[in-house]
């Protein structure tokens, strides 16, 4: 007789994100009195970067959107200047991922316009765009920037075409896209790129999900699932999977997971509820967390995604009584890493004319920077130019650390990493002084001194965690004034410490220089 030994298995997964919770901003940290659009289009209506928040507004006679400093919280002036160059309602807006002062908008007037926002925000109505893109024959409902190539914009409209635009073109009005993709038989409902921008996934009103090669327009995969009518589709980072949200045959809201190389049958289908609002999916490739927010819902569900079965692990949900019409997402580089914030939504609450920031936070006791929840993430630097991408090159995103004080990488890093004129000069100088070690050491110390001063000068003018002091709005309440005062005192203390350290370092280096000179003199 054999006795089988039973092993006990825990019913929960070990995960550092199991206790993530949503923290809504206080009333004074919301944006109040914003005339949010009443459009029934299923878009986000809001776009955010570390400097500005843009939201499509309701207005008569043409279309407009509002651009505010992210620090300009509280009551918004009803007469605040707008970006108002479109002749029809604005349907979508997106910030350029590599330029915080550049935003694209598309409209019912069948045009796409790209705007230059002044450094201190929109101080008067902006009506003249930097570029105007004319190619669509009907209204344009959706735009998307390429994730790694600079100044490459995709647009799609009710003419069922997806158009690719090169904004490096010198003309102010561009009438010919570099490519037009014509595989869709109905309106495209969403577009999503994979990490390096070599694949484009689309969902369409004809109930099909397509994976395309964006540069050539070749159709690689097509899903035609009878049991799942997809409205939004999303690439899940480097997991080689797609996620779609939509409805089932019985009109239940549903999400499905797909292998990007085989769209015949979904890997997973899960019904959520019987509501009718569109489900907006948001994926964070750094934490592998998926957020599902329904239009008209007050709650946001969140999950953890893994590359092995069962793929989807429900964590919990954030609940509130205020329904969201749309959502803006802060890029990773604009989050508050000191409070362990891993994601930030900007909820558009139409019934209150309110934009409410909502932070997703990992509870940690330590207030220091947490390396394990902030891996290297996409920087605000392009990996290549539009011409390089159009010539057939694919590159992954330029990565940066979110650790305070980390250097922000430059665009097109392979150009600066080569042996340029500066590098050539340095190598020649090294070769010339190899026969004179005293001179080499002296040159090195002086170079170090110059670098130290340069770094400190740069650090004083840099943006820290997306907060530029020149863009801060004046305090409106006594609490705000007190907070600003304490922050200012802390900044003054930090700068004094930095100056003291710099003085000590200068003295040390001067002593070393004198020692080197003395040793040279004795020889």
UniProtKB/TrEMBL annotation:
Which residue stretches belong to region Disordered? Answer: 401-439, 453-477
Keywords of this entry: Actin-binding, Coiled coil, Repeat, WD repeat
Q: Where are the WD repeats?
A: 83-117, 133-175, 181-222
The record's section on SUPFAM superfamilies has:
WD40 repeat-like
Q: Which PROSITE patterns match?
A: WD_REPEATS_1, WD_REPEATS_2, WD_REPEATS_REGION
Q: TM segments? A: none
Q: Name one Pfam family in it.
A: WD40_4
Question: Per the record, where are the segments of Polar residues compositional bias?
Answer: 460-470
Q: Is Cell membrane found in the keyword set?
A: no
Coiled coil ranges (UniProt) are 478-519
Where do Low complexity bias regions lie? Answer: 415-429
Q: Which SMART domains match?
A: DUF1899, DUF1900, WD40
Where the record annotates domain DUF1899, the positions are: 10-74
- Source superkingdom: Eukaryota
List the Gene3D superfamilies: YVTN repeat-like/Quinoprotein amine dehydrogenase
**Which GO molecular function, any one, fits this protein according to its record?**
actin filament binding
Matching PANTHER family: CORONIN, CORONIN-2A
Query: Can you tell me which family this protein belongs to?
Result: Belongs to the WD repeat coronin family.
Name of protein = Coronin
Q: Which organism is it from?
A: Salmo trutta
